[in-house]
Design goal:
51% of the residues lie in helices and 15% in strands. It is an alpha/beta fold. The protein has a single domain, classed as 3-Layer(aba) Sandwich (Rossmann fold). Strands 2-5-1-6-7 form a five-stranded parallel sheet, with helices on both faces. The protein has a two-stranded antiparallel ribbon with strand order 3-4. The longest helix is centred in the last third of the chain and has 20 residues. It is globular. It starts with a strand and ends with a helix.
Length: 179
């Protein structure tokens, strides 16, 4: 596991998981949100964003958190990744995650966000999360169809599975450092 994509709905816990995986393995963490957003929640030019992501993807090791499959060098990321981890959690879990995040981080920039993008209440974003399973999930399922047999695919349907996975990785890392 050297090039890992962590994907799924906002509020699913993918950023927290990706940072923890990075901490455990020592593989650098990359947030697509930090590459995409500009101060004041301004969006990047799609071509420019794709170029920034392509530069990151050429590195030998990374844990990349985020989706952006259409214009964030999505095909290239899928092609060069060796592991894809998908958070396929229920809408209620993701909505609760968003509400908890807003309550705990309101007005502050989270570690995985671009500078100048403090946490806020954004009704368009809440609608995106609410409709994610119906509108975005099918696009990710199609994206995953392009994975090769030599790539690992892991799907979490609840956060406990993700926690157990990290515990397993921690044990493997500990054993490897002993030998």
């Amino acid at each position: 596991m050297q090039r890992v994509l962590v994907m799924g709905s906002s509020g699913s816990g993918k950023s927290t998981f990706a940072r923890r995986l990075s901490d455990i393995t020592g593989i650098p963490f990359i947030s697509l949100d930090a590459l995409y957003w500009r101060p004041g929640w301004a969006t990047s030019d799609n071509a420019e964003f794709g170029q920034r992501v392509a530069e990151v993807v050429r590195r030998p090791r990374w844990v990349i958190d985020g989706n952006y499959t259409r214009y964030g060098a999505g095909e290239l990321r899928r092609e060069v990744s060796d592991t894809v981890i998908w958070f396929d959690l229920p809408r209620r879990t993701c909505m609760f995650g968003i509400m908890k995040r807003v309550a705990s981080s309101y007005g502050r920039v989270r570690p995985e966000m671009a500078e100048g993008c403090p946490e806020r209440i954004d009704f368009e974003f809440l609608r995106y999360v609410w409709t994610y399973r119906r509108q975005q999930r099918p696009k990710l399922l199609e994206y995953f169809q392009g994975l090769r047999a030599d790539q690992s695919f892991v799907c979490f349907t609840d956060r406990m599975q993700a926690d157990d996975y990290l515990k397993e990785i921690t044990v493997k890392q500990s054993r490897a450092s002993i030998h």
